[in-house]
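From the methods appendix. Each design record in this collection lists the tokenized structure first, followed by the designed amino acid sequence. Records were kept in a plain field format so they could be parsed without special tools. The example shown here is representative of the layout used throughout.

RECORD:
FOLD TOKENS (206 positions):
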């Protein structure tokens, strides 16, 4: 059964079915948010793939979702490159293998903001509070005073050896689908990405 928060989000955004291909012959139906202008299929698929690969590596995975805010506009994503490169190294040293996905958005504000999700080894991290503080410090530094907003219920635990893992997986995908909405993705230029993700690949034989 979905959490109260997700039920509230479904009341607000609605539900659309996303068919994720799991083999040449089969698909699995997953719920995503139903936006009037639609969603970017490739963003949802990237999030699903990186999460699924982490679950192939580890029986426990922690998913953390945050919003990164800026004080001024930039035509490029240099701030995300600097932040990402530093944090990837830092997280790997502390928590080991990590996957991520981020999106660039701008609606009515004069400057863009970013949403990011991390997928971490749940055997190394049980609660993200220390990691969040580390991320806040680094983001403030590279974004020249930028801030991080922590959403309600910002993290999920997925345990592959527990019976409710698939339900938690589906709920996590629904939450992550917020990153894929079309209406907030302004295209600055062909060279500036609206999103990026880690490039983990499945283990051979998985």
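DESIGN:
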């Amino acid at each position: 059964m979905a959490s109260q928060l997700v039920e509230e989000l479904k009341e607000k955004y609605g539900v659309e079915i996303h068919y994720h291909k799991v083999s040449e012959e089969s698909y699995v139906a997953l719920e995503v948010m139903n936006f009037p202008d639609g969603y970017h299929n490739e963003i949802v698929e990237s999030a699903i793939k990186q999460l699924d690969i982490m679950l192939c590596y580890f029986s426990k995975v922690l998913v953390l979702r945050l919003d990164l805010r800026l004080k001024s506009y930039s035509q490029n994503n240099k701030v995300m490159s600097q932040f990402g490169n530093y944090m990837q190294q830092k997280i790997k040293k502390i928590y080991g293998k990590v996957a991520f996905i981020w999106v660039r958005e701008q609606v009515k504000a004069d400057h863009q903001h970013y949403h990011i999700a991390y997928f971490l080894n749940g055997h190394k991290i049980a609660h993200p509070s220390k990691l969040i503080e580390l991320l806040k410090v680094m983001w403030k530094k590279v974004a020249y005073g930028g801030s991080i907003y922590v959403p309600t219920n910002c993290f999920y635990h997925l345990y592959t050896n527990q019976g409710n893992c698939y339900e938690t997986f589906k709920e996590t995908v629904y939450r992550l689908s917020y990153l894929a909405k079309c209406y907030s993705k302004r295209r600055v230029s062909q060279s500036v990405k609206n999103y990026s993700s880690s490039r983990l690949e499945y283990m051979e034989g998985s």
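APPENDIX NOTE: The mean pLDDT is 94.
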